[in-house]
Structures are given as structure tokens and as C-alpha cells.
Amino acid sequence: MIMFKACPRCQGDMHQNRDMYGEYRECLMCGYMADIRKPNLFSMEPVPATAPVRKKVSGRPARARTSAIRAA
After folding, report:
1. What is the mean pLDDT of the chain?
2. Is 44 in contact with 37 (CB distance < 8 Å)?
3. Which of 14, 41, 43, 53 would bridge 6 by S-S if both were Cys, CB 3.0 to 4.6 A apart?
4. Burial grade of 40 (CB within 10 A; 0-12, 13-18, 19 or more)
């Protein structure tokens, strides 16, 4: 694919090509080369987990269960 006037150095025409290292763009006039980076689909960064949100059923706070304490 040819991109007209896309070179950042000389405003020349660039074409897109691929070699064993990946895709790149090369200027037809000055020879400037730029790698084309692909988005990384598999990131090593952990995904932040969200805690489940608990809704209040009534207006007062929940009471602690004391039946296990009384039995002991």
C-alpha cells in the first residue's frame, strides 16, 4: 500500500512492507523506515478485580450472629 506525502522527514511517499521481523513503512524518496506496531492482545498486566457491591436490605446495619458464641 502506498501512502502519499506520509514521510515525517521529507514529506515523500511511503509504502508498507513486511519482512521476517514484522511490518514496516519505508519512504521511497529518502529511505526513512518506521516499524508498524501491532496492539498487544495478551497483556501481562493484571486486570483489577472489582469487589461485589452489597446492598442494604433495611435501614439498620446487619447484626452479628451470636448463636455459635452462646453454645460454646
Report:
1. 81
2. no
3. 14
4. exposed
> Amino acid letter at 61?
P
- Residue pointed to by grid coordinates 448463636: 67
Element (H, E) at 14: strand 14-19
What structural domains and CATH numbers belong to the chain? 1-38 (2.20.25)
Mean pLDDT, residues 6-21 taken together:
93
Q: Write down the pLDDT at residue 41.
A: 72
Is 0.90 topped by the overall pTM?
no
Looking up cell 486486570 gives 47
CA distance 1 to 18: 11
